[in-house]
Amino acid sequence: MGRSALAGSRDRGGATRVPDDLLLDAAKSCVLNSGVRRTTLAEIARTAKVSRMTLYRRFPDVHSILAALMTREFGLLLHGVAAEVPHAATARERLVRSAVAGVKALVADPLMRTVLDVDAELVLPYVTQRLGATQKLAEEVLRDLVVTGQEDGSVRIAEPAVQVRSVLLVVQSFVLSLRPATAGVSEQALLIELRHILDAALAP
């Protein structure tokens, strides 16, 4: 085996050994320091202390690694919020509490704040064109609670998919617009109103 072939073999082996979380942690650091638009694969590779080829083989472009990063970060955040919500008497109450807590957590999250402050146009496709992985994950969490709520009588009987999508649209608007919407209105007051909106929409 020639030297170049041996080097290539070693690099391929390195690509399989490098954990995705190491690469995603490096991408997160770069985004928080530079913003999404200024983050490059070369910078991520340097931060992760891996070769660019190792990174390219796993994530062919910046978009793919940033999409994976946001899916990981926001997915972990949403699951964490759902797990930490205090015991509720009904599934509807748990859904409402989880949704409001999720809004608060996402609005305060450093990665979400950086995206909205520096590169807000990047979220536009997920508002006007298609649902992203994080939105679909949120719908999975919501669907379980809606179905359970219909079973325990706390959620109005309707098509769960429609109810879940409607809740997602309301919650999403709060995540994207809560900070500028606090001009002249307190965040706490808006979150209380969100709780009333969701509770009334889902009540039998």
UniProtKB/TrEMBL annotation:
Keywords: DNA-binding. Coiled coil: none annotated. Gene3D superfamilies: Homeodomain-like, Tetracycline Repressor, domain 2. It comes from the Bacteria. One of its GO terms (molecular function) is transcription cis-regulatory region binding. The keyword DNA-binding applies. This is DNA-binding transcriptional regulator, AcrR family.
